[in-house]
Amino acid sequence: MKEKKDVKSHRYKEKVNNKTSGRPPNRFIKQSRAKLIIAFVFICILMIGLIIRLVYINMTSGEKYSKQVLSQLSYDSRSIAYKRGDITDRNGLVIAASEKVYNLILDPYVILNSKVLKSGDCVEPTIETLVKYFGMDRSEVEALLDENPDGRYVILSKELSYDEIQPYNELMDSEDKEDTAVSQYIKGIWFEESYVRKYPYATLASHLIGFTASGNVGTWGVEQQYNSTLNGTEGREYGYLTGDSSLERTTIPAVNGNNVELTIDLNIQKVVDETLAEFYESVGSANVAAMVMDPNNGEILAMASYPTYDLNNPRDLSGLYSQEEIAAMTEEEQLNALNMLWKNYCITDIFEPGSTVKVMSLAAAIEEDIVDLEEVFTCDGYETFKNGSSYDKVACVNTAGHGTITLKEALMNSCNDVLMQVAARMGVESFARYQRVFGFGQLTGIDLPGEAAGLLKDPATMAPIDLATNSFGQNYDVTMIQVISAFCSTINGGSYYKPHVVKEITTESGSTVKTINKELVKTTISEATTKWLQSALLSTVDEGSGKAAQITGYKIGGKTGTAEKYPRDAGTRLVSFISCAPTDNPEVVVYVIVDEPDVDNQSDSSIATKVNADIMAKILPYLQIFPEEPEDTSDPVEGAVE
To answer: 78-262: what fold?
Structure first.
């Protein structure tokens, strides 16, 4: 028994030994585990490094690689038009706006390759829809599809209005069964939004506003000066056809332009435009122009010249030329004619101002204290100046002479003789300095394109006769904006404000981007000199050469101007009148120029004075400037309660 047990025990041990004989020792197992951990950690580090590298590449070069990938995919894109900002008057009335229109776009590829329920052909229903709803010619559409079978973007019609596309939209949006049965077969038609510039008042303030050319490019006026402000930024829609033919789209929205609010008052502008048009049609002239300005801040309330043009059709010359004349013009001649029509006379044209600048000449003399305000002068009708071995005469407006005359009477009667005497006392250096003080011969900085600087005599070469003629507005050139800006400073206490036509810039939502406040450039004269000038200008209208400017109940001050044009012996004249009201505290200034009036006597300054008075009479009540009540000089009523 014992031997059997020993045999069994021996066999058991042997069996166990056989089973365990293939196991490695514990030290080997531990080494294997360590290697696995190291490999795992190494792989994790590689993965982390790869992730970091991918993030870095995406941040620094993602766009470059995206473009490389996208360039290998089917791709299409379209721009999204922005809305150019509106131009409004100071009261918010829209003068220029961009109206949304729609371009009808055709996708021939979609039309030719679309099927409905695997059997319905979409070509014929789509063509029928184009013919029915948009008046397209069937043969032209068919030819287009034949010629561009792979086309994805074909402009079929431009600038359709909302009303023109609405019937089609109603068909496509309809839930009616019959309409749905038709609309499901219509493919490859869509609309691209765009904008066209519209001017609801057509010719009103055309020279001031300007217009836009193709691509929202401002031309002349505010449209050009504030082009970058009015323009926005185009958006874009990108479409990518991936490898599995799924379409992915990304849209970057357009940013609309800012709005520009003008200092112009549309009601005042309308009065000015209509008055000039009436004069041009009834009397006629080479040009007639007018400006209305607030003397206390430099704001332009109205600016116009005639002939004018339609901002909605700026290249139309039919108002000035016959069709035969236009047809005979070369392209260059037509362009020159258009530029003459488009330019803003009030700031681009230079001319000899005539006697309106006598106001500034006398103001300078008073400031220099070379005249006594109560001083008496003698006008014999002319002054003589040596010219080599002979003498030249420069005549007064009254060739017979005004006789004994005061400084105020010299302004009232527009006496050239007294002005020449006063200028001689000042001397060339002092007189030329005041020309600069009043802004002549230099840009005013008005926020409009095309301003001219004018042309002054060089003080170094100015002869006594030049000084004499300069004193009453001859032999140097200015612009209307220079004269009115200088005049405003003489009647407002000496403050020369920078003239401007824009009041505020706002976003589409109405938030203020910029406010243009009054800008004091310099002080020209003293308050005391202003008070004397106000009184003298009032007397000029009440008793002197400006009587035609009188308006019952109002204190109107003003000065006439007549300038001989070159050549001097041609008999052509430029007449003008500048006025302010009320004279003791001016709130508005009106300046009118008539260039070569179609009358026998072009020297008659009352021609411009009457136009000025017509404008002033209409705008004063609108500006809440009312006539003064006449003083009651009658005897008190008996028994009246005081």
So the answer is: Penicillin-binding protein 2a (Domain 2) (3.90.1310)
Give the residue ranges of the chain where pLDDT is below 50. Answer: 1-5, 7-8, 12-13, 15-16, 19-20, 73, 245, 632-642
E strand segments, 50-142: 74-80, 87-88, 94-106, 115-116, 120-121
Which residues, in sequence order, are bridge partners of residue 72? none
- Write down the H helix ranges in 520-625: 527-542, 606-622
Rounded to whole angstroms, the Cα distance separating 56 from 66 reads 14
Residue count of the chain, please give it.
642
Give the domain 344-622 fold.
Beta-lactamase (3.40.710)
SS (H, E, C) 534-560: HHHHHHHHHCCCCHHHCCCCCCCEEEE
CB 597 within 8 A of CB 283: yes
Tell how strand 87-88 and strand 259-262 pair up. Answer: parallel
**Angstrom distance (rounded) from CA 561 to CA 577:** 6
Q: Where are the domains of the chain?
A: 78-262, 344-622
d(CA 197, CA 159): 11
AA letter at 619: I
Report the pLDDT value the prediction gives residue 117, as an integer from 0 to 100.
55
Helix, strand or coil, per DSSP, at residue 285: strand
301 phi and psi, to 5 degrees? -90, -25
> Residue 394 half-sphere exposure, CB side, CA atoms within 13 Å?
25
